[in-house]
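tool_call: predict_structure(chain=1)
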Amino acid sequence: MLWRMRWFFLSIFIIYFWMTPGEPIVGGLGYAWLPTWEGVVGGLQRVVVLVMLVLGVQLLILTTKRDQLISAIYWLFFPLGLLGISRERLAVRIFLVLESVAEVQVLAGEARERYSVQSSKVVGLAKSVADLISNVVFRAHDRRLVTVDLSLDDAPPSWQWSIPLALFVSMVLINLLA
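tool_result:
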């Protein structure tokens, strides 16, 4: 996952590197467009935070069963139920998306292989994306309706609800002290 996001990380680093005002790394001509030390630090901080988020999500996905994940999402969005939003529908939609991701990944790989030998990479990419979209739409229309049975476990223990709250309070305190 991290390897697939390498260009995203690099672009964030470059944007911070060149667009953050501060002390230039190299002295010389016009200070407006030179990379700065503050940009290096800011870019590295953002990239490290994003890497940690991606690793945390991957760890969560690898160690949690799909039913447990859906149940956790159902209970996490408890406040939305107070606003009249159906948590059950949200949980079912997320379940259906997770079910179809693997199938769409296979279709994307097939489309990429079919058009990888194009003379122009842009034309090959455009054709593979168009092929992927048409395959997804065709399969969506062709798919029969299924009944989804989600077992939504009981609410998590109250001490587990305090973990996100404690993280939020600690982040606020750290920002106030910094």
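agent: The CA atoms of residues 70 and 94 lie 7 Å apart. Proceeding to next step.
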